[in-house]
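User: Please predict the structure of the protein below. I'd like the answer in structure-token form so I can feed it into my own downstream comparison script.

Assistant: Understood. Taking the following sequence of 429 residues as input:
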Amino acid sequence: MTMHVSEQLDDQIYSKVSRRIMPILFASFVASFLDRVNVGFAKLQMMSDLHFSDTVYGLGAGIFFIGYFLFEVPSNIILHKVGARVWIARIMITWGIISGVMMLVNSAAVFYLLRFLLGLSEAGFFPGVILYLTYWYPAARRGRMVAVFMSAVAVSGVIGGPLSGWIMHAMPGVLGLAGWQWLFLIEALPSVLLGVIIFSYLPDRIADAHWLSDDEKNRLINRIQKEDQSKAQLSLMQVLGNRRLWQLALIYFSLVTGLYGVSFWLPTIIKFTGIADTLQIGLLTMIPYAVSAVGMILIGRSADLHGERRWHLIIPTVVGSAGLLLSTYFDHHTMLAMLGLTVALTGILSSLAGFWSLPTAFLGGSAAAAGIALINSLGNLAGFVSPYLVGWLKDLTHSTNAGLVMVASMMFFGAVLTALVPADTANQK
């Protein structure tokens, strides 16, 4: 009975925490991902206006992740030292400004430069939030919170697809600007606004939460401290030499290959099935993301409920790979191609959400800050490789199919690597 009452009390406190911090983090990731991948919609008009090839587009879309890679680890270490409130606010305001400046692209060189700077400015946001959640939630509760946070990617697609399609359908010529220029300008504004809100709203740690009583704070702090005692406290050099981290980075690389192989090219893939109108393309992109949002949360809850991580990661990865292959087989049949893409994106996003239960299960303190950032930065290099290879293969074959088969193969390889993760890491509660 005492245990049952204790769990109920914990549920009430964590519910209060989630209501306060998750909405702003969720909204920020929606804005972040929208600014990161809206170039996929801009491509539909920008390429003809600026005479870009698919290879140029793929390189520009991917070069974002070079800047991201270079500053990811330093950014997360700075966040751990100065606090999430100041650092996440700084990240959001600077990336919002640079995203808006993308409207001034007039050559391949400027396109590459601004995409690189956008990655540099955004570096640290995602791993910073993953680290921030370890300050608040123990492992048994963190899986579903990461899934909720990462479902922002899906919601970004649900909102961003129709919005981007409408902007590019309705705004060309307004004030002498092209539709893709309005796209970058309008969709950059929420990031700047949310950065200002975070600076005045987000508590750095449990101790700073004025909306919790002292007893509630102590209860949550004790939960985190007890869990941290079982985690590795490694130096930066030890993190760099940890073989398990490099294995996890390679798994994450394979999953990110799937994410950006689809995200940056989804409007183009849909257009290839025979849909020409940008508004219709935008509405159709909403479908895979809407289904993915539900799938991510259900799979995250199931993983927490059963205390099982490995198969909850392997199965969605294999399903995502199969969905990509299905979409290539029916590439000229809109309905069946959309079914394949929906299955693929649901598997991809669910596996990405489930992945982060692995490194956060055994890393604590500064080791978590450096380790999470290292895995994320190395894994996100796939965000450079994947769009570029898909673009290069499209120029070579005049179809996205070869690129998607490459992406599906890489994801299956990630599932195999996941099966090799030790059970004590994969299934820690």
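That's the full token string. The chain has one domain: 25-200+220-226+234-426.
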